[in-house]
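User: Okay, second chain of the day. Same drill as before: sequence in, structure tokens out.
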Amino acid sequence: MQNTVVEVIKDTTPLITNDTIVFGILMISLGLIFYTSKKDKGFWLKFYKIVPALFMAYFIPAIFTSAGLIAPEWTTVSDTGEAIENSSQLYFMSSRYLLPAALVLMTLSIDLKAVFNLGPKALIMFFAGTVGVILGGPVAVLLVGTISPETVGGEGADAVWRGLSTLAGSWIGGGANQVAMLEIYGFNQKLYGGMVFVDIVVANIWMALLLIGIGKTARIDKWLNADTAAIEDLKEKVSTYSKKVERNPSLTDYMILAGIAFGTVSFAHFGANYLSGFFESYVNGLPMGLKRNSMTFLSSSFFWMISIATIMGILLSYTKAKKYEGAGASKIGSIFIYILVASIGMKMDLGLIFDNVGLILIGVVWISIHAGLLILVAKLIKAPYFFLAVGSQANIGGAASAPIVAAAFHPSLATVGVLLAVVGYAIGTIGAVLCTVLMQLAAVS
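Assistant: Same drill. Structure tokens below.
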């Protein structure tokens, strides 16, 4: 008699599935965070000296997701036993509408010359982070393989090193590079979700640690013997200009700012759709191979949207629109950034960390090597923590989160995060291929 294996589909529907209600919960959370963070005495004063408000904006939604109150994605089982996949659109809305709007508003008052005066340390730290990812992968495979060979094993399309190649693509470049690596190495797509899971868990834990470090920037910079003069000069210039043009904003000011922000978002999406379509045809016309896959990011509409929004913000900073910083442009941009942070926090289910301990361990070792190299290089060249944090996040998080970390230091610095993330897109696939070659050698050794 033949046994039949019946797949049990788990219903993962959260308590609240309506995005309107979820958005309200996130906004209430943000409101309470800001209310308590402004307390000038007692428990909250001590608490926020240790834990930054930006971290809490990320962590509280993660708690809600872990508790089953909300979810970024879920499976509903119908009465007939059919699995229906659902997802929240809040992260899409925040990353596609609010992020480019925030970049425009935060860039209006930018002093581009002062940004370039930050010197080469930003790029050095970024590339140190890239090297950390390239070397961290094979070292993690070697170390974990000695403890648990089956964790790094697998044959053919199921080989773990093939799956880890997609992680390398994501951690040097971004989503487009990740998909390119999936195509290059032909990893079993049924197992691909496990790699995406490791990416989300480990990258978000690392981002949380970076955000906590922002609250201790002065102490970290002192330990690094960092020269922060150029960064402080840029912040001072922007702050001085903001005070100079500061005024009591009118409804007209707010409406003009909304027009500037979302008009630019509209233009960025229009240009992104056109350029991504054009380059998709161009890239697809190239012969199969590394050259074709290394240029996949050019067909990413998200890449072009972020790039166009940033360029538009820089161009507007040379016009009279710059004076709208006095009406609170960067403050409104910061609101959008905090909403994006909360929507990213939604994607983190703390309970899933223990579901695949082996792969998570690879990711933790990998990110630790990346972090260790960054700290070593920062110590050697006396780079500020700002360059360490943003250089790392431009690799690991990409254009969606690098400006978040940069803006946490000061709104005027968000552009630095975007510029470094764009470099990551450009070198992501080539760097990931090198990392994968080393991981393959480590897996079979």
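The longest strand covers residues 73-77.

User: Thanks, on to the next one.
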